[in-house]
Amino acid sequence: MAKIKYFYNPHKLDFEKVGTSIWTIVLRVFGFLSASAVAGGIMAFVAYSFVDSPKEKVLKRENEQYKQQLKYLNRRVVELNSLLTELEQRDANIYRAIFEADPVDIKIGKSNTEKYRNLEGYENSDELIALNQKVDELATKVQLQSNSFDELNQLAKNKTEFLACIPAIQPISNKDLTRVASGFGYRIHPVFKTHKFHSGIDFTAPQGTPIYATGNGTISFADGGNGYGKHVIINHGFGYSTLYGHMSRVKARPGQKVKRGELIGYVGSTGTSTAPHVHYEVIKGKNKINPINYFFNDLTEEEYQAIRDIASREGQSFD
Ligand SMILES: [Zn+2]
């Protein structure tokens, strides 16, 4: 029940009822509404702060998932990095060592932070930027490593080619060989009887014994003339040539490509020679070098030792 208020009217010396003006009503209504609004606001604030809406719950769950993903990716990047480091070490210490290549310089400068600008301003920005940097570094390393392997591949191809080309066998088959008559070094010349440098090895064999190319190459000379008599020179590339002297018959023509073991002529005694034999030279660059170091393909350890002994013995060459 509403209270009825009275006031004392001194002019009438009596109590009179207090009338409710329209303004009073308006003020009261306004006051009530204001109080309700404030109370509602407080309640809403409390609700929003401590109780999640369904949408917020979903977003929070998603956010949690992203964080887990970030952690997982970080771990994967670390794992991949250590795998790559292992590859780098194998590359530097084994592969590049085999091919005598310089080690790769894998130094990675700090990445340009400008490109991660769009990742700034989020809750996880630091982690995201760090992960992006790691992935970028990883990509650079992989690229460098891949280049290194391409280079090694090329070196391996060259090495195979090199091994096929350099002289690596005797010019005469072991079964046909009478003996190694004279080695590389100072020998008494059979015709001039002087102490002369013998720039090759003499293999004695019966007249007409086949002579073989000792490595892949191109015939650069095949003809007669001078002290070597009928002779063949093969250019093997990589700075190597071989010469086969005193042939009875030449079985090659200039420009012809030959494979190791291919027939190029027959043993004879043409030129300055005293008996049928092949005078064999290995030339590297401008120097005639000891062919004894270039028979490694077809000799056993014992055979190699025997040929070494004979070839190093002092004596007369067949030239
Ligand atoms: Zn000789």
Structure characterization notes:
A hairpin with a 4-residue loop joins strand 1 (6-9) and strand 2. The chain contains 4 helices and 14 strands. Strands 3, 6, 7, 8, 9, 10, 11, 12, 13 and 14 form a 10-stranded antiparallel beta sheet that branches. Strands 1-2 form a two-stranded antiparallel ribbon. It has helices at residues 22-50, 54-98, 125-165, 301-312, and strands spanning 6-9, 14-17, 179-182, 185-188, 195-198, 201-204, 210-212, 217-223, 230-237, 240-250, 257-258, 263-267, 277-284, 287-289. Helix 2 (54-98) packs parallel to helix 3. The protein has 319 residues and is α+β, with helices and mostly antiparallel strands. The protein is 40% helix and 22% strand. The chain folds into 3 domains: 6-50; 68-165, no CATH class; 179-312, Glucose Permease (Domain IIA) (Distorted Sandwich). The site of zinc ion has 8 residues, from loops.
List the helices and strands and how they pair.
Elements: E1 6-9, E2 14-17, H1 22-50, H2 54-98, H3 125-165, E3 179-182, E4 185-188, E5 195-198, E6 201-204, E7 210-212, E8 217-223, E9 230-237, E10 240-250, E11 257-258, E12 263-267, E13 277-284, E14 287-289, H4 301-312
Antiparallel strand pairs: 1-2, 3-6, 4-5, 6-13, 7-12, 8-9, 8-11, 9-10, 10-12, 10-13, 13-14
Helix pairs in contact: 2-3
Bound molecules: zinc ion.
